[in-house]
Amino acid sequence: MNILGISGSLRQASFNTALLHAAQEVAPAGMNILIHRLHELPLFDQDVEEQGDPAPVTAFKEAIDNADGLLIACPEYNGGITGVLKNAVDWASRIGKARQTAVLTGKMVCIVGASPGITGTVRAQDALRLVLRRAGARTEPQGDVLVFQAHTKIIEGRLADERSREALGRHLQGFADRLSAEAKSY
Ligand SMILES: Cc1cc2nc3c(=O)[nH]c(=O)nc-3n(C[C@H](O)[C@H](O)[C@H](O)COP(=O)(O)O)c2cc1C
What we know:
With 186 residues, this protein is an alpha/beta fold.
């Protein structure tokens, strides 16, 4: 099972990117999480799109297309999702010139998030669900992974808090079970 990990933060010491690294460690057997960096993705511009997707956009769409599901680590900026993440969703929601359907269509997405605050990105995660559904993706219905007060739990880039690691592991197991059940029913 190949999962594409996407962090909504470009920050070197990002708590959310660290959460993706922790996910790689606690993922259930058989789940491989490959992290795709968003640093090269240009700002969405419909004029640019009309000339054909730039190479980083093509690479991003291919990575999504090749994945069985997405794992998005969603930071919270001003109660919503980051511009970086919205920009990525906007590109991925578009068919472009080279495809018949958008790569997000029907794609299953698991969402997690970390923040130094006390709400652990709950508002941003809800906002992301709305955006993803509008873009044609599907989101995990089960509970959230909200790593609040992340600065006390993620130390030097490692998720050190055992309860958070266990919650993340359970969440990923639920995601794996759902994807497996869907694969069997096809
Ligand atoms: C512009 C801006 C707005 C922010 N707004 C929120 C917010 O609404 N809620 C929150 O919990 N944290 C907020 N924060 C703090 C972020 O959660 C914090 O910077 C976090 O480390 C970002 O995620 P990262 O570590 O993955 O980069 C904000 C930070 C920035 C830069």
